[in-house]
Amino acid sequence: MSETISPTFTFVKAGVFYFSRRIPKSLQHHYTSPRIVHSLKTRCARIAEARARRAADQLDEYWYHLRSQETRLPGQHMLREAATLTRVPSLGAEPTVPQSSSVTLSEAVGIYLRLKGQGRAKTFHTMAHRACGYVLDICGDKALDAYTKKDANTFRDQLIERGLAGSSLSRIFGTIRAVTNFAASETGLEFTNPFTNVYFDRQAGVSKRQPVSQDALIKIAEGCLRYDDERRWLIALVADTGLRLAEAAGILRDDIKTGADGSMHVVVQPHPWRSLKTKGSERTVPLEGLSRWAAERILEQTSSSPFAFPEYNRGETTSANSASAALNKWIKTLTGETITMHGFRHAMRDRLRAVECPSDIVDQIGGWQTGGIGHSYGAGYPLEVTQKWMKVIARADMVYGSKQLL
Q: Of 110, 161, 234, 252, which is least surrounded by CB within 10 A?
Protein backbone atom coordinates (compact mmCIF):
# COMPACT_ATOMS: atom_id res chain seq x y z
CA MET A 1 0.00 0.00 0.00
CA SER A 2 1.41 3.38 -1.02
CA GLU A 3 2.25 5.85 1.71
CA THR A 4 0.01 8.91 1.92
CA ILE A 5 1.90 12.10 1.12
CA SER A 6 0.93 14.95 3.45
CA PRO A 7 0.12 18.32 1.87
CA THR A 8 2.62 21.17 2.30
CA PHE A 9 2.98 22.49 5.87
CA THR A 10 1.16 19.48 7.37
CA PHE A 11 1.86 16.20 9.13
CA VAL A 12 -0.42 13.44 10.37
CA LYS A 13 -0.78 12.32 13.98
CA ALA A 14 -3.28 9.64 15.01
CA GLY A 15 -4.98 10.09 11.63
CA VAL A 16 -5.52 13.83 12.12
CA PHE A 17 -3.74 16.45 10.01
CA TYR A 18 -1.73 19.17 11.78
CA PHE A 19 -0.39 22.46 10.41
CA SER A 20 3.33 23.00 11.01
CA ARG A 21 5.51 25.86 9.83
CA ARG A 22 8.88 27.15 10.97
CA ILE A 23 8.98 30.82 11.92
CA PRO A 24 11.69 32.77 10.04
CA LYS A 25 14.72 33.44 12.26
CA SER A 26 14.39 37.19 11.76
CA LEU A 27 10.90 37.09 13.30
CA GLN A 28 11.35 34.47 16.02
CA HIS A 29 11.79 37.13 18.70
CA HIS A 30 8.07 37.89 18.28
CA TYR A 31 7.16 34.33 19.32
CA THR A 32 7.65 32.01 22.27
CA SER A 33 8.48 29.02 20.01
CA PRO A 34 10.41 28.68 16.73
CA ARG A 35 7.59 26.73 15.09
CA ILE A 36 3.80 27.13 14.77
CA VAL A 37 1.88 23.87 15.17
CA HIS A 38 -1.87 23.38 15.52
CA SER A 39 -4.52 20.83 14.61
CA LEU A 40 -6.39 21.31 11.35
CA LYS A 41 -9.24 19.22 12.81
CA THR A 42 -9.68 16.99 9.79
CA ARG A 43 -8.65 13.55 8.55
CA CYS A 44 -9.23 14.50 4.91
CA ALA A 45 -6.08 15.40 2.95
CA ARG A 46 -7.99 17.69 0.56
CA ILE A 47 -9.54 19.72 3.39
CA ALA A 48 -6.23 19.79 5.25
CA GLU A 49 -4.44 21.12 2.18
CA ALA A 50 -6.94 23.99 1.81
CA ARG A 51 -6.80 24.90 5.49
CA ALA A 52 -3.02 24.73 5.59
CA ARG A 53 -2.70 26.95 2.52
CA ARG A 54 -5.08 29.47 4.05
CA ALA A 55 -3.09 29.49 7.30
CA ALA A 56 0.18 29.86 5.38
CA ASP A 57 -1.19 32.78 3.37
CA GLN A 58 -2.35 34.52 6.57
CA LEU A 59 1.10 34.07 8.09
CA ASP A 60 2.82 35.39 4.96
CA GLU A 61 0.65 38.52 5.09
CA TYR A 62 1.29 39.05 8.80
CA TRP A 63 5.01 38.42 8.51
CA TYR A 64 5.19 40.94 5.67
CA HIS A 65 3.78 43.61 7.98
CA LEU A 66 6.17 42.61 10.79
CA ARG A 67 9.14 42.87 8.46
CA SER A 68 8.01 46.22 7.05
CA GLN A 69 7.79 47.60 10.59
CA GLU A 70 11.35 46.50 11.38
CA THR A 71 13.01 47.49 8.11
CA ARG A 72 15.16 50.58 8.44
CA LEU A 73 14.59 53.11 5.71
CA PRO A 74 17.52 54.82 3.95
CA GLY A 75 18.33 58.01 5.89
CA GLN A 76 16.13 56.96 8.82
CA HIS A 77 18.53 58.64 11.22
CA MET A 78 17.63 61.95 9.53
CA LEU A 79 13.86 61.63 10.04
CA ARG A 80 12.08 64.60 11.60
CA GLU A 81 11.15 62.58 14.67
CA ALA A 82 14.74 62.98 15.85
CA ALA A 83 14.48 66.73 15.36
CA THR A 84 11.43 66.92 17.61
CA LEU A 85 13.41 65.71 20.62
CA THR A 86 14.40 68.38 23.15
CA ARG A 87 17.95 69.58 22.54
CA VAL A 88 20.13 72.05 24.41
CA PRO A 89 22.08 74.05 21.79
CA SER A 90 25.71 74.83 22.48
CA LEU A 91 26.60 78.41 23.38
CA GLY A 92 26.13 80.70 20.38
CA ALA A 93 24.61 77.95 18.21
CA GLU A 94 21.15 78.14 16.72
CA PRO A 95 18.72 75.40 17.81
CA THR A 96 17.92 72.76 15.20
CA VAL A 97 14.69 73.61 13.38
CA PRO A 98 12.78 71.01 11.36
CA GLN A 99 12.41 71.75 7.69
CA SER A 100 8.61 71.55 7.95
CA SER A 101 5.98 71.63 10.66
CA SER A 102 4.48 68.45 9.22
CA VAL A 103 5.59 64.86 9.75
CA THR A 104 5.00 61.72 7.72
CA LEU A 105 2.68 58.98 8.92
CA SER A 106 5.58 56.62 9.68
CA GLU A 107 7.17 59.36 11.80
CA ALA A 108 3.82 59.99 13.49
CA VAL A 109 3.66 56.35 14.58
CA GLY A 110 7.12 56.66 16.11
CA ILE A 111 6.17 59.83 18.01
CA TYR A 112 2.92 58.29 19.23
CA LEU A 113 4.49 55.09 20.53
CA ARG A 114 7.54 56.81 22.01
CA LEU A 115 5.41 59.15 24.10
CA LYS A 116 2.20 57.21 24.70
CA GLY A 117 3.45 53.64 24.43
CA GLN A 118 5.54 53.64 27.60
CA GLY A 119 4.38 50.81 29.84
CA ARG A 120 1.53 49.89 27.49
CA ALA A 121 0.73 46.33 26.44
CA LYS A 122 2.30 44.84 23.32
CA THR A 123 -1.14 44.88 21.69
CA PHE A 124 -1.17 48.70 21.94
CA HIS A 125 1.99 48.90 19.82
CA THR A 126 0.82 46.15 17.46
CA MET A 127 -2.48 47.90 16.76
CA ALA A 128 -0.79 51.22 15.98
CA HIS A 129 1.68 49.56 13.59
CA ARG A 130 -0.99 47.42 11.97
CA ALA A 131 -3.62 50.15 11.44
CA CYS A 132 -1.15 52.71 10.08
CA GLY A 133 0.62 49.96 8.12
CA TYR A 134 -2.60 49.46 6.18
CA VAL A 135 -2.56 53.17 5.27
CA LEU A 136 1.09 52.98 4.19
CA ASP A 137 0.32 49.98 1.95
CA ILE A 138 -2.74 51.56 0.32
CA CYS A 139 -2.02 55.31 0.28
CA GLY A 140 1.73 55.55 0.78
CA ASP A 141 3.82 57.33 3.40
CA LYS A 142 2.92 61.02 3.15
CA ALA A 143 3.12 64.09 5.32
CA LEU A 144 0.04 64.18 7.53
CA ASP A 145 -1.34 67.32 5.89
CA ALA A 146 -0.86 65.74 2.44
CA TYR A 147 -3.48 63.05 2.99
CA THR A 148 -6.86 63.92 1.46
CA LYS A 149 -10.44 62.81 1.95
CA LYS A 150 -10.05 60.86 -1.28
CA ASP A 151 -7.17 58.93 0.32
CA ALA A 152 -9.31 58.16 3.36
CA ASN A 153 -12.23 56.99 1.23
CA THR A 154 -9.97 54.85 -0.95
CA PHE A 155 -8.50 53.36 2.21
CA ARG A 156 -11.99 52.56 3.51
CA ASP A 157 -13.03 50.93 0.22
CA GLN A 158 -9.92 48.74 0.17
CA LEU A 159 -10.55 47.50 3.70
CA ILE A 160 -14.17 46.69 2.87
CA GLU A 161 -13.02 44.75 -0.21
CA ARG A 162 -10.76 42.72 2.08
CA GLY A 163 -13.88 41.65 3.98
CA LEU A 164 -13.28 43.51 7.25
CA ALA A 165 -16.34 43.91 9.46
CA GLY A 166 -17.67 47.30 10.52
CA SER A 167 -16.34 46.81 14.05
CA SER A 168 -12.82 46.18 12.71
CA LEU A 169 -13.02 49.31 10.54
CA SER A 170 -14.07 51.32 13.60
CA ARG A 171 -11.01 50.13 15.56
CA ILE A 172 -8.63 50.79 12.66
CA PHE A 173 -9.93 54.29 11.93
CA GLY A 174 -9.98 55.08 15.65
CA THR A 175 -6.31 54.12 15.97
CA ILE A 176 -5.32 56.12 12.88
CA ARG A 177 -7.09 59.21 14.20
CA ALA A 178 -5.43 58.81 17.60
CA VAL A 179 -1.95 58.52 16.04
CA THR A 180 -2.33 61.39 13.56
CA ASN A 181 -4.08 63.78 15.95
CA PHE A 182 -1.51 63.17 18.68
CA ALA A 183 1.47 63.62 16.36
CA ALA A 184 -0.06 66.79 14.89
CA SER A 185 -0.60 68.20 18.37
CA GLU A 186 2.96 67.37 19.44
CA THR A 187 4.49 69.04 16.38
CA GLY A 188 2.17 72.05 16.30
CA LEU A 189 0.57 71.05 13.02
CA GLU A 190 -2.89 72.41 12.32
CA PHE A 191 -4.79 70.34 9.81
CA THR A 192 -8.22 68.88 9.15
CA ASN A 193 -7.86 65.15 9.69
CA PRO A 194 -9.24 63.41 6.57
CA PHE A 195 -9.68 60.14 8.52
CA THR A 196 -12.40 61.79 10.63
CA ASN A 197 -16.08 61.34 9.71
CA VAL A 198 -15.42 58.68 7.08
CA TYR A 199 -18.71 56.89 6.47
CA PHE A 200 -19.04 53.12 6.62
CA ASP A 201 -21.63 50.73 7.99
CA ARG A 202 -20.45 49.98 11.50
CA GLN A 203 -22.84 47.04 11.77
CA ALA A 204 -21.74 45.35 8.54
CA GLY A 205 -20.64 41.80 9.19
CA VAL A 206 -21.13 42.21 12.94
CA SER A 207 -23.15 39.61 14.81
CA LYS A 208 -24.53 40.73 18.14
CA ARG A 209 -23.11 38.81 21.07
CA GLN A 210 -25.93 37.14 22.91
CA PRO A 211 -25.93 36.64 26.68
CA VAL A 212 -25.77 33.06 27.93
CA SER A 213 -29.28 31.81 28.63
CA GLN A 214 -30.35 30.55 32.06
CA ASP A 215 -30.75 27.00 30.74
CA ALA A 216 -27.25 27.08 29.25
CA LEU A 217 -25.82 28.49 32.50
CA ILE A 218 -27.23 25.52 34.42
CA LYS A 219 -25.86 22.98 31.90
CA ILE A 220 -22.45 24.65 31.96
CA ALA A 221 -22.40 24.75 35.76
CA GLU A 222 -23.28 21.05 35.97
CA GLY A 223 -20.54 20.27 33.44
CA CYS A 224 -17.98 22.27 35.40
CA LEU A 225 -18.86 20.44 38.61
CA ARG A 226 -18.67 17.10 36.85
CA TYR A 227 -15.30 17.59 35.08
CA ASP A 228 -13.76 19.58 37.95
CA ASP A 229 -10.44 20.58 36.34
CA GLU A 230 -8.46 23.74 35.55
CA ARG A 231 -10.38 24.60 32.38
CA ARG A 232 -13.73 24.16 34.08
CA TRP A 233 -12.57 26.30 37.05
CA LEU A 234 -11.77 29.08 34.61
CA ILE A 235 -15.21 28.85 33.00
CA ALA A 236 -16.87 28.81 36.44
CA LEU A 237 -14.90 31.84 37.61
CA VAL A 238 -15.91 33.86 34.54
CA ALA A 239 -19.52 32.63 34.56
CA ASP A 240 -20.32 33.91 38.05
CA THR A 241 -18.22 37.10 38.10
CA GLY A 242 -18.53 38.54 34.59
CA LEU A 243 -14.73 38.90 34.40
CA ARG A 244 -13.21 39.22 30.93
CA LEU A 245 -11.55 35.96 29.97
CA ALA A 246 -8.06 37.50 29.86
CA GLU A 247 -8.62 39.10 33.28
CA ALA A 248 -9.50 35.74 34.81
CA ALA A 249 -6.89 33.66 32.96
CA GLY A 250 -4.07 35.94 34.10
CA ILE A 251 -4.80 36.10 37.83
CA LEU A 252 -2.45 34.80 40.49
CA ARG A 253 -3.42 32.51 43.31
CA ASP A 254 -2.55 35.44 45.58
CA ASP A 255 -5.16 37.58 43.79
CA ILE A 256 -7.83 35.38 45.37
CA LYS A 257 -8.51 36.65 48.88
CA THR A 258 -10.44 35.27 51.85
CA GLY A 259 -11.90 37.73 54.33
CA ALA A 260 -12.03 37.37 58.13
CA ASP A 261 -15.73 36.48 57.84
CA GLY A 262 -14.99 33.68 55.38
CA SER A 263 -16.12 35.63 52.31
CA MET A 264 -14.00 35.48 49.17
CA HIS A 265 -13.13 37.96 46.43
CA VAL A 266 -10.67 38.36 43.58
CA VAL A 267 -8.50 41.42 43.02
CA VAL A 268 -8.39 42.32 39.31
CA GLN A 269 -5.19 44.27 38.73
CA PRO A 270 -2.66 44.68 35.90
CA HIS A 271 0.28 42.28 35.71
CA PRO A 272 3.35 42.28 33.41
CA TRP A 273 1.98 39.23 31.60
CA ARG A 274 -1.58 40.54 31.34
CA SER A 275 -2.63 44.17 31.13
CA LEU A 276 -6.19 45.42 31.67
CA LYS A 277 -8.42 46.95 29.03
CA THR A 278 -9.03 50.23 30.90
CA LYS A 279 -8.07 51.91 34.15
CA GLY A 280 -11.61 51.26 35.37
CA SER A 281 -11.03 47.53 34.92
CA GLU A 282 -9.03 47.51 38.16
CA ARG A 283 -11.50 46.34 40.76
CA THR A 284 -12.37 43.86 43.48
CA VAL A 285 -15.06 41.33 42.58
CA PRO A 286 -16.88 39.20 45.20
CA LEU A 287 -16.88 35.45 44.65
CA GLU A 288 -20.24 33.80 45.15
CA GLY A 289 -21.94 30.73 43.76
CA LEU A 290 -19.98 28.82 41.14
CA SER A 291 -17.09 31.31 41.13
CA ARG A 292 -16.48 30.71 44.83
CA TRP A 293 -16.43 26.96 44.22
CA ALA A 294 -13.83 27.49 41.47
CA ALA A 295 -11.69 29.73 43.71
CA GLU A 296 -11.77 27.17 46.51
CA ARG A 297 -10.75 24.38 44.13
CA ILE A 298 -7.85 26.48 42.82
CA LEU A 299 -6.53 27.22 46.30
CA GLU A 300 -6.90 23.58 47.38
CA GLN A 301 -4.39 22.49 44.74
CA THR A 302 -0.75 21.96 45.65
CA SER A 303 1.11 23.84 42.92
CA SER A 304 4.55 25.34 42.46
CA SER A 305 3.08 27.86 40.01
CA PRO A 306 1.93 31.25 41.33
CA PHE A 307 -0.74 31.35 38.61
CA ALA A 308 -4.34 30.34 39.22
CA PHE A 309 -4.36 28.90 35.67
CA PRO A 310 -0.83 27.70 34.78
CA GLU A 311 -2.02 26.11 31.53
CA TYR A 312 -2.57 29.57 30.03
CA ASN A 313 0.51 31.27 31.48
CA ARG A 314 3.45 29.28 30.13
CA GLY A 315 4.96 32.09 28.06
CA GLU A 316 5.63 35.77 28.57
CA THR A 317 1.95 36.67 28.18
CA THR A 318 -1.37 35.08 29.15
CA SER A 319 -2.72 32.95 26.28
CA ALA A 320 -6.29 34.25 26.39
CA ASN A 321 -6.95 33.51 22.70
CA SER A 322 -6.05 29.84 22.97
CA ALA A 323 -8.11 29.63 26.15
CA SER A 324 -11.10 31.14 24.36
CA ALA A 325 -10.95 28.69 21.45
CA ALA A 326 -10.70 25.61 23.67
CA LEU A 327 -13.38 26.67 26.16
CA ASN A 328 -15.86 27.84 23.51
CA LYS A 329 -15.55 24.46 21.79
CA TRP A 330 -16.23 22.54 25.01
CA ILE A 331 -19.24 24.71 25.85
CA LYS A 332 -20.74 24.06 22.40
CA THR A 333 -20.38 20.29 22.78
CA LEU A 334 -22.07 20.55 26.18
CA THR A 335 -24.98 22.86 25.32
CA GLY A 336 -25.33 22.46 21.55
CA GLU A 337 -25.24 26.27 21.30
CA THR A 338 -22.62 28.63 19.91
CA ILE A 339 -21.69 30.46 23.10
CA THR A 340 -18.59 32.58 23.60
CA MET A 341 -16.86 33.17 26.90
CA HIS A 342 -17.62 36.87 26.47
CA GLY A 343 -21.31 36.00 26.58
CA PHE A 344 -20.98 35.49 30.34
CA ARG A 345 -20.30 39.24 30.72
CA HIS A 346 -23.52 40.03 28.88
CA ALA A 347 -25.35 37.49 31.03
CA MET A 348 -23.93 38.97 34.24
CA ARG A 349 -25.26 42.39 33.35
CA ASP A 350 -28.71 40.94 32.62
CA ARG A 351 -28.70 38.93 35.85
CA LEU A 352 -27.87 42.03 37.89
CA ARG A 353 -30.57 43.99 36.07
CA ALA A 354 -33.08 41.25 36.85
CA VAL A 355 -32.61 41.76 40.60
CA GLU A 356 -32.80 45.57 40.15
CA CYS A 357 -29.17 46.19 41.07
CA PRO A 358 -28.32 49.93 40.64
CA SER A 359 -26.50 50.55 37.36
CA ASP A 360 -23.43 52.16 38.94
CA ILE A 361 -22.93 49.09 41.13
CA VAL A 362 -23.31 46.91 38.02
CA ASP A 363 -20.62 49.01 36.32
CA GLN A 364 -18.27 48.65 39.28
CA ILE A 365 -18.67 44.86 39.40
CA GLY A 366 -18.05 44.46 35.68
CA GLY A 367 -15.39 47.14 35.29
CA TRP A 368 -17.59 49.05 32.85
CA GLN A 369 -17.15 52.79 32.43
CA THR A 370 -19.83 54.80 34.26
CA GLY A 371 -21.03 58.02 32.64
CA GLY A 372 -20.92 61.39 34.37
CA ILE A 373 -18.02 63.25 35.99
CA GLY A 374 -19.42 62.68 39.48
CA HIS A 375 -18.71 58.96 39.21
CA SER A 376 -14.97 59.64 39.04
CA TYR A 377 -15.00 60.98 42.60
CA GLY A 378 -14.42 58.75 45.61
CA ALA A 379 -13.29 55.14 45.85
CA GLY A 380 -16.56 53.51 44.78
CA TYR A 381 -18.79 51.14 46.70
CA PRO A 382 -17.25 49.08 49.53
CA LEU A 383 -16.83 45.34 49.03
CA GLU A 384 -19.72 44.59 51.40
CA VAL A 385 -22.17 46.35 49.05
CA THR A 386 -21.08 44.62 45.83
CA GLN A 387 -20.95 41.32 47.69
CA LYS A 388 -24.57 41.76 48.81
CA TRP A 389 -25.73 42.01 45.20
CA MET A 390 -23.61 39.08 44.05
CA LYS A 391 -25.23 37.00 46.79
CA VAL A 392 -28.63 38.07 45.53
CA ILE A 393 -28.05 36.78 42.00
CA ALA A 394 -26.41 33.62 43.37
CA ARG A 395 -29.60 32.88 45.32
CA ALA A 396 -31.86 33.87 42.42
CA ASP A 397 -30.13 32.01 39.60
CA MET A 398 -27.42 29.59 40.60
CA VAL A 399 -29.11 26.41 41.86
CA TYR A 400 -27.30 23.42 40.38
CA GLY A 401 -28.95 20.05 40.88
CA SER A 402 -29.36 19.39 44.58
CA LYS A 403 -26.44 21.62 45.56
CA GLN A 404 -26.86 25.35 45.97
CA LEU A 405 -23.56 27.22 45.83
CA LEU A 406 -23.76 30.41 47.88
A: 161
In DSSP terms, 266 is beta-bridged to 256, 285
- Distance CA(309)–CA(186), nearest Å, equals 42
Grouping H, G, I as helix, E, B as strand and the rest as coil, residue 80 is helix
For residue 132, give the amino acid letter: C
Identify the three-state secondary structure at position 208. coil
Please name the amino acid found at residue 313. N
Q: Which residues of 186-198 are buried (b: 16+ CB within 10 A; e: fewer)?
A: bbebeeebbbeeb
Please answer whether residues 106 and 180 qualify as being in contact, where contact means their C-beta atoms are separated by less than 8 angstroms: no
Number of C-beta neighbours around residue 103 at 10 A: 26
Strand, coil or helix: 378: coil
CA dihedral 20, 25, 31, 37 (to 10 degrees): 10
Q: What CATH number matches the domain at 214-404, 2.60.40.10, 3.40.50.1970, 2.30.30.100, 1.10.443.10? A: 1.10.443.10
Which tens digit of pLDDT belongs to each residue from 192-217?
999 999 988 877 655 556 678 888 89
For residue 46, count CB atoms less than 10 angstroms from its CB and return exposed for 0-12, middle for 13-18, buried for 19 or more. exposed
Return the ∠ at Cα 143 (arms to 142 and 145), rounded to 5°: 120
Q: Write the DSSP symbol of residue 372.
A: S
Strand 256-258 to strand 264-268: parallel, antiparallel, or no bridges (unpaired)? Answer: antiparallel
Its CATH architecture, for the domain 101-207, is: Orthogonal Bundle (1.10)
Q: Beta strands 16-22 and 35-39: pairing type?
A: antiparallel
Q: Tell me: the pLDDT tens digits for 69-106? A: 655 544 444 444 443 333 333 334 444 433 445 788 98
Quote the distance between the C-alpha of residue 53 and its chain's center: 26
For the chain, the domains span: 10-51, 101-207, 214-404
Burial zone of 208 (CB within 10 Å; 0-12 exposed, 13-18 middle, 19+ buried) = exposed
Alpha carbon of 131 to those of 79, 138, 150, 156: distances in Å? 21, 11, 18, 12
Of the candidates 346, 380, 336, 385, the one whose C-alpha atom is nearest the C-alpha of residue 366 is: 346
Number of C-beta neighbours around residue 281 at 10 A: 19
| Distance in Å from the first CA to the final CA of the chain | 61
Buried b (16+ CB within 10 A) or exposed e, 22-37: ebeeeeeeeeeeeeee
pTM of the model: 0.61
